[in-house]
Amino acid sequence: MSGDGCGLERVGTVLWVPDGGLPAQIAVIGDLVARWDLLPPWGDGTGVRFPARGPARQWGDERAMAVALGERLVGAGARAPGVAVAPGRLLSWAMSRQARRAAEPVIVPDIRAGEARARLPVAVLSAPGGPAALDPSFVERLVRLGLRRLGDVAALRVGDLVGRFGEPGRQAHRWAVGAEPPVPVSVASPEVTVEFEFDPPVNQVD
């Protein structure tokens, strides 16, 4: 597959630090996005991933959707939300981290996806909370060999990587060229329930 983003779903990712009030913040996501996946935690933060096309149509375009989502999360108590939309899970997640640092949404058009992906450091392949989740020691070996960017990995023949590293080499190449593994089945936002515990009933006395 070419690295220009063709064939990859437009994915929205938002990362933030809850600072309390996580149920209200998740409810914000559910109000704007019908289907989403809760991402693995990273440090003291959390995040979700969602198909972007439907919500973007409702808001007019992807940037308007991303701005609205960030503003509503801040209103619900979230700290430093970063919202990004890009082709594929890995690029969307990496750009969401960039969006947190820049304090504004990042939107990557399909035509720019290959260029943006090639610039990513190979560390994204093992970063906590990231979609690739490769072994950090394997990624360190790539860096020691001078493969510091995903573009460096994508430029190699997959057979050479497999011959040297086995299956992790194959997986690294797939992520690097944008041939991502199938997306896990998304789930609808879970219902939020509140339970109240009452004292046992008092027997009526005539």
What does this structure look like?
Strand 2 (35-38) and strand 3 (46-51) form a beta hairpin. The longest helix is centred in the first third of the chain and has 14 residues, at 62-75. Helix content is 42%, strand content 15%. It is built from nine helices and six strands. By secondary structure, the protein is of the alpha+beta class. A six-stranded mixed sheet has the order 5-4-1-3-2-6, with helices on both faces. The model is unreliable at 185-206 (pLDDT under 50).
Low-confidence stretches: 185-206
Q: Describe the sheet with the most strands.
A: 6 strands, mixed
Oligomer: single chain
Tally the beta strands.
6
Structural class: alpha+beta
Q: Give the averaged pLDDT, no decimals.
A: 86
Helix content bin: 40-55%
Supply Rg: 20 Å
End-to-end span in angstroms? 81 Å
Order of strands, widest sheet: 5-4-1-3-2-6
Shape: globular
Q: List the helices and strands in order.
A: EHEEHHEHEHHHHHE
What is the number of helices? Answer: 9
User: What share of the residues does DSSP label as strand, in percent?
Assistant: 15-25%
Descriptors for this entry?
206 residues, alpha+beta, 9 helices, 42% helix, globular
